[in-house]
Design brief:
Length: 107
């Protein structure tokens, strides 16, 4: 019975949306906050505006991401239009961290 519960949890689908702020739960970027830029063949395309720039975005398995929050409408619009810049992503993540009582890093 317990095994089926674990299997059910593993098979649950996560509904991520463009502009969502997510936390990486696996890989070299474990614990980092990222913003979803889109989806590519079932993988989530993310960037942090720093090591993972818009030009060098990362594709991650959805199982390795945890929903953390939503981007502001202005940033979301720019992502959807393909005009978002790295400094805007960094600023959005910094603002999110501040809102949850995270570290305050100079930009």
């Amino acid at each position: 019975r317990r095994q089926s519960e674990i299997t059910d949890v593993k098979n649950m689908k996560k509904a991520f949306m463009t502009g969502d702020i997510v936390e990486s739960t696996a890989g070299h970027d474990h614990g980092k906050y990222l913003i979803i830029l889109g989806v590519n063949e079932g993988r989530i395309v993310v960037a942090d505006g720093d090591t993972r720039t818009v030009a060098k975005k990362k594709e991650k398995n959805p199982a390795h991401l945890r929903f953390a929050g939503k981007s502001d409408e202005g940033v979301l619009l720019k992502i959807r239009e393909g005009r978002v810049e790295d400094h805007e992503i960094r600023k959005q993540i910094k603002k999110f961290k501040k809102s949850i009582g995270g570290i305050d890093v100079e930009e």
